[in-house]
Design brief:
α4 runs antiparallel to α5. The protein is globular and about 90 Å long. The two termini are 48 Å apart. It contains five helices and 33 strands. The chain is mostly beta strands. The protein is 11% helix and 43% strand. The strands form five sheets. The protein has a 15-stranded mixed beta sheet that branches. Strands 8, 10, 11, 13, 16, 18 and 19 form a seven-stranded antiparallel beta sheet that branches. A five-stranded antiparallel beta sheet has the order 9-12-17-14-15, with no helix packed on it. The chain has five domains: 86 residues; 149 residues, Jelly Rolls (Sandwich), CATH 2.60.120; 81 residues; 76 residues, no CATH class; 59 residues, Phage tail proteins - 2 layer sandwich fold (2-Layer Sandwich).
Length: 495
């Protein structure tokens, strides 16, 4: 076993001789390598050198060429038997600050551009504009003076990704006796007009999609309606109008059109991390797969890269499989379906089952806001039968009360919390390996689980986390938790 620190692939310090009584604990987690904590016998000058270096060193635990764990040194503690703590390279995504518009279908984010913007020709008072019910409606007012235009604009957050695609269904109505124009313009920072994408002067309707990436991506977009002559309009309000619906703004148009897939987000922020800190992540993207699920609304404001990754992980794939994001050896990113990488067999004798009343509830009530924005509470309903009652409250927003109650009852019958504590596991080939080779994302199958426990424990499970103590030689293997039915109900309500 060797535990060592590196900088730019150069050995800085072999910690192996300084490990205190083999006191090393390391984990794997839902994001790949978790943390490594080691108590050392480093001398004060040695630990001070690490403390004052202001460097993030590469940490590797391995046997020969086989890597057991790798990450970056983050915490240095000065005391008797100094402690070092390292974390896997998924943490590099926490170094990146993110403010980005990805996709938006909400019409309430469009605004009438005020009269003091875009020059003297911007005269919104001459027009009727409605932004509601998933549509934008603009009409020239009766007795409107000739000339002038109105604009409905959308502006992405400053510093965000630029808009590269817009799509909508439109219906533009003109009259034979007038000369009107409908079109689309780009907006730069500060509500300044940039390039024009099209202008139509005849009545027309249909689907329109404009991809701007081959010209100039814009901070925003503006849809306009313009009277081209100086004549007084004597028709009725609405005779000249346009209606737009199914509007979608996007910053990354996929090959298939104005769509957004989670892997595009992962690739973009992986590139951002690599640009920020090239030594913290592997730029290869060959293990980043696409869920092919269209995320219609996604925007981040002043969050970290890992926050953004956590958000896109909430969305399914087209085949229904959830995805996982992990960083393993060589700082390599994996974004892939949650299927078992490796399968191991475990013994019933290594099983630990825990039940606690602290997190058990027998009755629940729903708390919600009614149509008048008044807080209401349902009567308590039964989750499960015990000889002692324990009550809870569930607050909801725009979710069916019946669906929540059904989900809560289902969640109350979930099986007990378990874990395995062992030093050895068996492979599918029949070989015995040290339990620390098992990682998050692997699968465990019990080879001798008694039938009478099947109501309490599943015969197999996916691994969520592993915790290895090198001093004892034992590894704790913690199953992936079943997603609560309530979480599914709430998640579906937001899609």
């Amino acid at each position: 076993m060797q535990l060592a620190l590196y900088e730019n692939n150069q050995l800085i310090l072999d910690l192996t001789p300084y490990v205190e009584d083999n006191q090393i604990e390391f984990t794997t987690s839902e994001y790949g390598f978790g943390y490594l904590k080691v108590n050392t016998r480093l001398l004060l000058p040695q630990i001070l050198q690490l403390y004052n270096a202001k460097k993030v060193y590469h940490v590797r635990l391995g046997f020969g060429i086989k890597t057991i764990w790798e990450g970056r040194l983050e915490d240095v503690e000065i005391r008797n038997n100094p402690t070092l703590v390292a974390y896997g390279y998924w943490r590099s995504f926490s170094d990146l600050q993110v403010t980005d518009l990805w996709s938006d279908t909400k019409v309430d984010n469009w605004k009438v551009i005020p009269v003091n913007y875009f020059g003297v020709g911007n005269l919104p008072q001459k027009y009727t504009t409605q932004i509601e019910a998933n549509r934008i409606y603009q009409a020239y007012n009766k007795n409107g003076e000739g000339g002038g235009y109105t604009m409905v604009g959308y502006l992405a957050p400053i510093g965000s990704k630029k808009i590269e695609c817009i799509s909508y269904i439109f219906n533009f109505r003109d009259t034979p006796t007038t000369s009107m124009a409908h079109g689309l313009r780009g907006i730069t920072e500060g509500f300044v007009q940039s390039n024009s994408y099209y202008s139509l002067t005849t009545s027309v309707s249909g689907l329109r999609m404009v991809v701007t990436q081959n010209t100039i991506p814009n901070q925003g977009m503006a849809i306009f309606l313009q009277e081209l002559t100086s004549a007084l309009f004597i028709g009725e309000t609405g005779d000249i109008s346009q209606t737009l619906s199914n509007i979608r703004i996007g910053s990354t148009p996929s090959i298939s059109g104005n769509r957004l897939y989670a892997d595009e987000v992962v690739r973009y922020y992986a590139s951002g991390v690599y640009t920020l800190n090239p030594n913290q992540i592997n730029p290869t993207t060959q293990y980043i797969q696409s869920p092919q699920y269209d995320i219609t609304d996604l925007q981040f404001n002043d969050v970290t890269g890992i926050d953004a990754i956590q958000e896109v992980l909430k969305y399914p794939s087209t085949n229904g499989l959830p995805y996982r994001f992990q960083v393993w050896e060589d700082k390599t990113i994996y974004f892939e379906p949650k299927t078992a990488r490796n399968t191991y067999y475990a013994r019933f004798s290594d099983l630990k089952i825990t039940r606690t009343f602290d997190t058990t509830y027998t009755q629940d009530r729903i708390v919600y806001q009614d149509a008048n924005d008044i807080t209401q509470r349902t009567a308590f309903y039964t989750l499960q039968q015990w000889n002692t009652q324990r009550q809870s409250s569930t607050k909801i927003d725009n979710v069916s009360i019946t669906a929540v109650q059904t989900a809560k009852i289902a969640d109350s019958t979930q099986k007990e919390r378990i874990e395995i504590i062992t030093d050895w596991l068996q492979t599918t080939q029949g070989n015995f390996v040290r339990a620390y080779e098992c990682r998050s994302g692997d699968k465990i199958i019990f080879i001798d689980l008694p039938g009478y426990l099947l109501d309490v424990v599943d015969n197999s499970f996916m691994v969520q986390e592993t915790i290895t103590n090198m001093q004892t030689g034992l590894t704790r293997i913690i199953p992936e938790q079943t997603i609560a039915q309530l979480d599914n109900v709430i998640a579906r309500s937001k899609l």
